[in-house]
Design goal:
By secondary structure, the chain is mainly α. It has three helices and no strands. The radius of gyration is 16 Å and the shape is elongated. This is LysR substrate-binding domain-containing protein.
Length: about 80
């Protein structure tokens, strides 16, 4: 089936859901999609003529309790170490 047009979303969840539903390709962080890539539900592709725009990612957790901050730090470190 041939599809025309573009889908625009403003959240990782929206991009993820559209990609998982077969709407096309997506540019998402490897750590966000690792589970799906490892299971084979998604396949990574290389676009030789495309370069992603560099974006900064910020985690704001000023009001987290100590255990929540520790959990967030642990999750970020463990996800980044895999790649």
């Amino acid at each position: 089936m041939r599809v025309a047009g573009r889908l625009t979303v403003n959240s990782f969840k929206g991009i993820h859901d559209a990609c998982m539903a077969g709407a096309g390709i997506a540019l998402l962080s490897i750590w966000y999609m690792a589970e799906y890539l490892q299971s084979g539900r998604l396949v990574a592709i290389a676009l030789e003529d495309a370069q992603p725009k560099e974006l900064a990612v910020w985690a704001v957790y000023l009001f987290f309790a100590t255990h929540q901050r520790a959990q967030t730090d642990f999750q970020m470190r463990s996800r980044l170490q895999r790649w």
